[in-house]
Every structure is written in C-alpha cells, then in structure tokens.
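Hello again, I could really use a second opinion on something today. I've been staring at a protein lately and its backbone has me curious. Can you walk me through what the tokens say about the fold? Take your time with it, there's no hurry, and the full record follows here:
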Amino acid sequence: MKNKFNILRYLGPGLLVTVGFIDPGNWAANISGGSEFGYDLLWVITMGTITLIILQHNVAHLGIVTGDCLAESIKKNFKPWIAKSVLWTAILANISVSMAEILGVAIALQMLFQIPIWLGSIIGVAISNFMIFTNTYKKLEKFIIGFVSIIGFSFIFELSLIDVKWTNVFVASVVPNINPSSILVALGIFGAIVMPHNLFLHSEIIQSRQWDLSNEEVIKKQFKYEFCDTFFSMVLGWVINISMFVLSIACFYYKKIDVTNLSQAHELLVPLLGNKAALIFALGLFFSGFSSSITAGMSGGTIYSGIYGKSYDIKQKETIIGILITSLVALCIIFLVKDALKALVYSQAILCFQLPFTIGSQLYLTSNKNIMGKYINTKFTNILILLIGVIITGFNIYLFIVQ
C-alpha cells in the first residue's frame, strides 16, 4: 500500500508534458491528417509517442541528477554563443506552440459563444497568465490533471457514437506507410507530439518535489517513479491522439469531406453525430487549449530564465519576462493570421525544425560523464537518441528540398 501511495504521489510532471501533445496543434494536425489521408498516418502517432517517451525519460534524468533544467545545463556547459543560439531558437519554437494553444482557446470560444477570434485570443492569454501568476506549481498540476481527464472523457464519448474498425486502427498504428504527398502533414503530426518546449519543461518540473540529491537511494527511487509517471502519461496522450485521428477518419475521410478548419469540423459533427457531440468537441478543445497555454507559458519562463543561468521562479523577473514574451508575441502573430487551421499545422512543423538543436544539446549533456557522473547514458541510449536526431533532421532536409 505504501509503494502504491508513493507512486501516486509522484505522478504529475508527465501529465503536464502530456497536455503539450494533446493541444490544439495536435487537434489540427490529427483532423487534417485523418480527413485527408485516412489510416496512412496513424503510425506517425505511435512513432512520435515512442520517441517522446525516450526523450522525456532521458531529459528527466538530467533534471534529477544535476538539479538543473535543460536550459540551465545548456547555459552552464556550452559556449555562450552556442547556448544563446539554442535557447533563443527554443524561445521562438515556444512562441510558435503558444500561438497554437491560444488559437485553440479562441476557436473553442467562437464555437461555444460566437466570440471573435481576436477577442477569444485575448481572453485566452489573460486567463492562462492569471493562472500561472496566481497559482503554485502543485495547484496548477491538479488543474492540469483535471483538464486532461475532461479531454480524455470527451473523446471516449465521441468514439462511442461512431463505428470504428479497430483491427484497421491497430495495424495502421504499428505499420509504417510512407506517402510522399503527406510528408508535411506527417511532420506536423510528429512535431505536435515531440515538442522541444516539453523537454525544457519536464527537466524543470521533475525537480518540484525537492529531493535529497546527495542520497543515492533517493535518486534511484526517483528514476523508477519518474519512468512510471512518464510512461503512463505518454501512453494516455497516445490514446487521446489516436482517438482524435480515428474520429476524423470515421466522420470525414470516408465521407470525402475536406476539413479546412476546426470550426468547420465542429459544424460538420452536428449533422453527423448530433449537437451533444459538437458541444463536447468544443469543450474538449477549450480545455486542451487552456491547459496547454499554461504549460507553454511555464516553458517560456523556464527557457528564458535558463538564458541567465536561473531556474523557474514565478517571483523573479526573468521568469515573468519569459512568460510574457511567449504569450504576448504569440498573440500579436495571431492578429496577423488568416487561416487558423494552416497556422496550427505549420506551427507544429516549425517545432520539428528546432528539435534537432534541442535533442543534440540534450544528448551532449546526458552522455557527458563530467555532468551526469555514473548516471551517464548507456551506449544504447546514446544510439537511440542520435538516431532520433538524425531521422528528424533528415525529414527536415527532405521537406525543405521537396516542398
């Protein structure tokens, strides 16, 4: 009983990461991918989730062993110009993802109350920043867990209304199917799952329990509980993403409906599945955007503080500036956006272009004995992370040349 209690006590950081890859960008990428390509891209979600588990588990080790988040470690262990280059590109990627989160809130408010996108975006930024600045991390963690539950239940309800060919879903989820015309959408789906800002955030919030890092047994225990938290949370995110994709396939792909925006998807669900389904869809999108905009803001505070060699602290100016830069610059970009769905999909692809820089930095740090000591990566882990970085870089190069 005591062990079960301990495991539950340490669940939380992984769920904040999960929020990041069930965000409105994922909704856009999954609905776009499912409606246009059917089952062809389901395997990308599985590949992305496995990749995410490997990277998040590895970066959490960095936080546990060193007591520094990824941003602080980069600042301490890289030449200044390299550190600034990596961290500022991470800030830009974080602004990109924040734009997707805020747009998701705005689109949901438009669905629910006919509020204009510009006003909904302002409301989203105001509420999420209020939550960040007035709540402690542990309180926010409880809110996020509740939001993830609401999103999960919304898709369980949606799936109960459609006829799903689960055999096809399973096969397509594990068997790769490369379609050259789907590369951009595939990259968007992958980028919506494996997000650089989540690596920075996880390495920061994994330290929230204030462990005694001088005690080897305590560190080993944290490794065990962290893996349970990360694995459970990532699998939950995988289930929700698969559900989004399956819903899009069943409602739009088979009926040859071209979905051009999330509002259209919401409207089309009314004749297909009924008013309740459309309402649940809008509510799920709202909580998805709201919760992920909170974690995006926290990530911005973490990365910007790391530029100055400091950890996340809501009372210090670097953290406050990082949060405000993330949300306010994203808000300004939204005012210039004409096609919301394309903006959401492209925002996720932008994350993929930044990922190699973050992954390369993480690999260097966690494979360095001077930094990690005896908790240095195994050769197998190094090969896996290196392979992930090479594959993502290869996709980026291919996209740049072909598209």
About this structure: The first helix runs from residue 2 to 10. The chain has a mean pLDDT of 84. The chain is about 80% helix and 0% strand.
